[in-house]
UniProtKB/TrEMBL annotation:
Source species of the chain: Dichanthelium oligosanthes
Keywords noted in UniProt: Calcium
Name of this protein: EF-hand domain-containing protein
Superkingdom per UniProt: Eukaryota
InterPro entries: EF-hand-dom_pair (IPR011992), EF_Hand_1_Ca_BS (IPR018247), EF_hand_dom (IPR002048)
All residue ranges annotated as the EF-hand domain in the record: 78-105
Calcium in keyword set: yes
C-alpha cells in the first residue's frame, strides 16, 4: 500500500486511455480466470468480490454480523452487475464494461479536488496514479 494524491481526472484519464485501461483490466481478468476458458464464473470472481469487503469499507458493517444468506445475496448481486447478459459467466467485454463504470463512478465520487488516499499496489487506482506520474515525468524531460 502507498499514500497517493489523486483527483477524479486521474482516474477518468486512465479509463479514457483505452490501451492502458484494457491492458490493466485484461490482466486482472486473466488472473481471475483460473480455468483459462475466457469466462469468469461466480466461483472464480467470489474471492475478488469478497476481498472488497463492501459492507465493512463502505457502510461500516462487520460482515461477521450479517447473516450468511444475506452476504451471499450481496455478492451474487455484485456478480450479476458484471454478468450483463445473465449467462452465469462474465466474458472479457462484460468485465471491461463494468470496471469502466465502477472506475468512472469512483472518479465522479472523488471529484475535481485532489485527495490523499491509501491505495493498494496493483490496484486500478495505483495504476492510474503511476500512469499520470509517468506522463508528467515525460513532459518534464
Amino acid at each position: 500500500m502507498s499514500v497517493e494524491i489523486l483527483d477524479g481526472s486521474t482516474v477518468r484519464s486512465f479509463v479514457e486511455d483505452e490501451g492502458a485501461f484494457n491492458t490493466s483490466v485484461d490482466g486482472r481478468f486473466a488472473a481471475l480466470d483460473a480455468d483459462r476458458d475466457g469466462l469468469l464464473s461466480y466461483a472464480e470472481m467470489a474471492g475478488e468480490l469478497m476481498s472488497l469487503r463492501v459492507l465493512e469499507k463502505h457502510f461500516g458493517v462487520d460482515e461477521a454480523a450479517v447473516a450468511p444468506d444475506e452476504l451471499a445475496g450481496l455478492y451474487h448481486g455484485l456478480f450479476a452487475r458484471f454478468d450483463r447478459d445473465g449467462s452465469g459467466k462474465v466474458d472479457r467485454q462484460e468485465f471491461r464494461a463494468e470496471m469502466r463504470e465502477v472506475l468512472l463512478a469512483v472518479a465522479n465520487g472523488i471529484g475535481f479536488l485532489p485527495v490523499q488516499m491509501v491505495v493498494e499496489e496493483g490496484s486500478f487506482l495505483k495504476i492510474a496514479v503511476d500512469r499520470e506520474l509517468d506522463q508528467l515525468a515525460a513532459k518534464a524531460a
